[in-house]
Design a protein that fits this description.
The chain is of the alpha+beta class. The chain contains four helices and seven strands; from the N terminus they run E-H-H-E-E-E-E-E-E-H-H. Helix 1 (14-21) packs across helix 4 (126-148).
Length: 149
């Protein structure tokens, strides 16, 4: 198990970031280096279960993930089947207004990772590599939102 927390402020509105990260069908198009494929298995009012192929530490991982959300504010992703079963990643969005009226959002990520076979890939540098990867992912959110605008 590796636990990593990070947060970063991006220049994009909370609503747009939330829409981006919960538009599951489009994640492989918007983040092709991370999501190889994604298929929705089940959907309810506040959750989506997907079968996905994702890139983790340079390896493609097949997994089933349940995403639960609180509109506009929170997304929790739990791997329920696959090599990283038991991994939970929580993303919290907190909107701030700049003095120049442009929206910024603080994106906080709390990741409790069960690396399984991947643990040997990360070795003793796991936390630093994972934290850097999560910070890069947050930057990608802001860049993707700006491309959509």
């Amino acid at each position: 198990m590796v636990r990593v927390e990070t947060s970063k402020t991006v220049h994009a509105s909370q609503d747009k970031i939330y829409s981006l990260i919960t538009d599951f069908e489009k994640l492989p198009l918007r983040f092709p280096n991370r999501y190889r494929s994604l298929k929705i298995i089940e959907r309810s009012e506040n959750s989506v279960t997907v079968e996905e192929d994702v890139m983790v530490a340079g390896r493609e991982i097949h997994q089933i993930t349940r995403h639960t959300f609180e509109p506009k504010r929170f997304l929790q992703s739990e791997v329920i089947n696959g090599d990283t079963k038991g991994t939970i990643v929580e993303i919290t969005l907190d909107s701030k207004e700049d003095s120049g009226s442009a929206n910024t959002t603080t994106v906080s990520v709390d990741a409790d990772l069960k690396l399984g076979k991947l643990g040997t890939v990360f070795g003793v540098f796991a936390k630093g590599k994972i934290k850097g990867g999560l910070e890069h992912m947050i930057e990608e959110f802001g860049n993707a939102v700006n491309k959509m605008s």
